[in-house]
Design goal:
Helix content: 25-40%
Number of strands: 3
Strand content: 15-25%
Radius of gyration: 13 Å
Number of helices: 2
Order of helices and strands: HEHEE
Shape: globular
Length: 81
């Protein structure tokens, strides 16, 4: 399993518009986490489209550097239609 795949799995399994919280050791790591979750989403999108399945919705991101965390949610995901 890839390092950031577990975050993506939690996000896929979350309810519609439910936020998934990721705590980071240092707020400087927030952008790295965001980038890698976007890569995981892109890989999943490509695989789903190749199978003719609906795509995942828009990735919502909320940065909270003061709390050393970042939150993710999927909006209007094809799985939930």
């Amino acid at each position: 399993m890839r390092r950031y795949e577990t975050i993506w799995d939690r996000l896929k399994k979350a309810e519609a518009d439910q936020w998934v919280e990721v705590k980071v050791a240092n707020s400087s790591h927030i952008q790295t986490i965001i980038n890698m979750v976007q890569v995981e989403k892109s890989r999943a999108q490509t695989a789903r489209r190749g199978l003719g399945l609906p795509g995942f919705g828009r990735l919502l991101i909320r940065r909270e550097p003061e709390n050393n965390r970042v939150l993710f949610a999927l909006k209007d995901s094809g799985d939930l239609l």
